[in-house]
Amino acid sequence: MNPAASNRLPVSPTADEAARTAHLLGELEGSIRRERAEKALQSRLLAELGDIAHAQSRRSERVDQFEFPRRAMAAEVAALVRVSPRVARGRIENARILTAGFPEALGALEGGRISQDHVDVIVDLGVRLAGDADARRVFDGHAVEIAEAETAPRLRTDLGVLIEKVLPTSAQEKHEKAREGRGVWVDDLQNGMSELVLRSTTLEVHAVYDRVTGMGRAVKRDRRAYARARDEAQGSGAPAPEASAPGTDPVLSDERTLPQLRADILTDLLLSAAPTGHRLHQAGTTATLGEIRATVQVTIPADVLAGRDDGPPAWIGAGSVISPAQARILAGDSPGWERLFVRPDTGDIVQTDHYRPTTGQVRAL
């Protein structure tokens, strides 16, 4: 390395470059402010739509019709925004909470002083003060002051400390209340992928994550040890461990990353391990959760099942897409098939029956 080169000063921008940079930064700032103002306007519009739906619900004469107006409004918004009705309903309710309970945060968003991410953090933590209007009002003002100088992740940390000081309940009481919201749900993505979301206690979630991480790292260590042993054996002329044809070694060809290993191992554990900690104590029986088997109805186009085509894909349940390869594996492993006969023009089911595949069909799949 040239010593003189390391002592050179950074290249200075030209006068035109400096002027252009200042202009572009000003344009970007204006665009961000306008975008934030539009977000605030959308929140106000969604909140008013939600208020209309709630007013209609209150006028419902029958209890079983109370939810209809809100569901209908969510469906209208979902069709417009191209999201699911569940997501649309969540946005409407969040907008109502923001406009009614956090006027300072909404005003700061409207003025472009804070982002939507900041607002989401303020509302997420501030709703815990729903029973104390005065405390929430004070929190709203202080939160905006902090948000104007912090990133959204840092704001969550700062406000988390603030909210703990404001709330009158003990840490254990807060935890027990929050624990009631634990659950598992599925978010369907594109290209035959989905997310399984687990919400549980921090200790248990981190323990699960730590366990699958440790298992994933063990796989990577074993993979490296196997590769070293194989290289040493080849160098000495000795037989390689579990030798296989070149390019087909399952260990050496395993290039999965640690996140991919975590996903594969956790899926394997959930699908194969028995939940011994949750026995179903039924009088006179030995039934356990481990004896329950999942039943998933899979709709598979005939061309996909026969292997003549990899599209259209197969789907499960209410329309979640799975890959053609997965569909063929499921069909081959199943002792029986529930056949659905549908109208090709409308998709309506006109007939169903149960069919037991032959040994040859299963072998082919």
Provide the descriptors you would attach to this structure in a database record.
single chain, 365 residues, mainly alpha, three-stranded antiparallel beta sheet, two-stranded antiparallel ribbon
Provide structural commentary.
By secondary structure, the chain is mainly alpha-helical. 57% of the residues lie in helices and 9% in strands. It is built from 14 helices and 7 strands. The strands form 3 sheets. It has a 3-stranded antiparallel β-sheet with strand order 3-4-5, covered by helices on one side. α2 (15-58) runs antiparallel to α3 (68-81) and α2 (15-58) crosses α4. The chain is extended. 13% of the residues are buried. Residues 279-288 have low confidence and may be disordered.
Largest sheet composition: 3 strands, antiparallel
Oligomerization state: single chain
Report strand order across the widest sheet: 3-4-5
Helices and strands, in order, run as HHHHHHHHHEEHHEHEEHEEH
Q: Gyration radius, to the nearest Å?
A: 29 Å
Low-pLDDT windows of residues = 279-288
Give the helix level as a range of percent: 55-70%
Q: Would you count the extended β strands for me?
A: 7
The helix/strand class is mainly alpha
Beta-strand percent range: 5-15%
Q: Assign an overall shape.
A: extended
Number of helices: 14
Ends: how far apart? 62 Å
pLDDT averaged over residues = 78
